[in-house]
Amino acid sequence: MRYGPILLLLFAVPCWSQATAGQAETSGTCSPAVSGSNNTFTISCGIGKEQGQKMLAILNKILANRIDTDAVMTKLDEILHAVNPNLPTKIYFCGGGWRSQGPSANVGLMMTMNSSNDPSLQQMIDLANARPTEDQELLKVCTSQIESKPEWLTPRLFCAIAYARIGDKTKMKEMLDAYDSRKGPAYDDDKFCQQLSSVAHSALN
Q: Is residue 58 part of a domain?
């Protein structure tokens, strides 16, 4: 079975420049600090032993019952927004950049944007173009991205293509269904994701 090639595309996106930040020293249980030249904020917080045991019990239950992690994350988002509808939301773009919008500790509404493509995007493109020798490696990379960034949908298209090439149409359909049910303008209006989606869906037929 033959599939159309995935064209090697390099996205041209503007760089968001920021002023260099100096060293910052803070103290306390959850103290933010600014470091580096990109104004990166790191907040380190600890949890008590009892909270840690509860979190471990939840994770063990998920693993023991082989619950779909995507479904768990979706349901968790629903619960969190029901409890606090003003929680910040994070939206990913086709290339892996993202936009976060919502209240912060000091302001009623704050928007943060990272327009850069995720480094793994080019890696997945290269692996897809190296077919068929790198199908398993492509699966490894796209699956890793799904686990670490479940809100970013593009890796599901790469996984769908990889599953199609190894003959697993069930897994392929799962990936496409997850993509189709959650995508929006950030993906529909992007030419690269349009092309990638077309290649993936054509392999299903």
A: yes
Compute CA 160 distance to the chain's CA centroid, rounded to the nearest angstrom: 16
Query: What pTM value is reported for the model?
Result: 0.59
**Strand segments (E) across the chain:** 31-35, 40-44, 89-92, 98-102, 110-114
Domain that holds residue 80: 47-87
d(CA 60, CA 55): 9
Q: 30 lies in a domain?
A: no
In this structure, are residues 157 and 197 in contact, taking their beta carbons and an 8 Å threshold? yes
pLDDT at 190 over 90: yes
Residues 69 and 130 in one domain: no
Sequence-distant (6+) residues with CB within 8 A of 62 are: 69, 72
